[in-house]
Amino acid sequence: MLDLSIADSIGLAFFLGVWVLYRFVNEHGLGRLRSLSVLMNEHRMGWMRSMSTRDSRIADASIMSSLQNGAAFFASTSLILLGGAAASMRATDDVLKVFGDLPFGLTVTRGTWELKVLGLALLFGYSFFKFAWAYRLFIYAAILLGATPGPESPDAEAREKASKRAGFMTIDAGLHFAKGLRSFYFAFAYVGWFVSPYVLMTTTAAIFIIVMRRQFFSAARASLTHEPS
């Protein structure tokens, strides 16, 4: 039986609203200000253009392999965290006893606890599917990289189209990888709900500020927009 309080409902709505807001701002920018992720997409395309002019693509294949390994690592981590969330669901009785013995006046019902754990499991399940799909897309990108004609090919137009296909595939893979990371970031904020909805709103706002700063006001972004002297 779910008996969410008004504060819990507001906290959950705030969490979801901030998630959607960050996704929109990250992908569409703040006015003319583009995010770090969007700026990196241009360099992904530049990488593929440079790749198409090289005879030897060992370095390119090595970079692609590193990207695949990163996605695979986070996918496996998501599964471990998902298992931990499932174990927490089974320990509901023990958790309720612990909360009942705490002197802080925290009241947690079975339905509320299970809903919170289910939400956490959904976050890690979402991240797993995003990282797993990013891993597969990086494999596709590696295939497209290998299928790109070399600089000795007389058909420059075909080479350019092939490099663009590989570039767009890496962009799509990077997009899904970023969505998986976003789920990890906001999972930290979501944990605040296990304390109270007010902590949830506080941690959500804190995570939002952190990720916004990294995307729009970080040194990493500045390194992409500053012209070398």
Describe this structure in words.
By secondary structure, the chain is mainly α. The chain has a domain at 57-181. It has helices at 6-28, 36-51, 58-90, 92-101, 110-147, 156-190, 197-216, 219-225. Helix 5 packs antiparallel against helix 6. The model has no long low-confidence stretch (mean pLDDT 88).
Largest sheet: none
Question: Radius of gyration from the CA trace?
Answer: 22 Å
The helix/strand class is: mainly alpha
> Strand percentage, roughly?
under 5%
Tell me the helix content.
over 70%
Pick out its properties.
single chain; 229 residues; mainly alpha; DUF599; transmembrane; transmembrane helix; DUF599 domain-containing protein; membrane
Could you give the topology of this structure?
Blueprint: H1 6-28, H2 36-51, H3 58-90, H4 92-101, H5 110-147, H6 156-190, H7 197-216, H8 219-225
Describe this structure in a few short sentences.
This protein is mainly α. It is 79% helix and 0% strand.
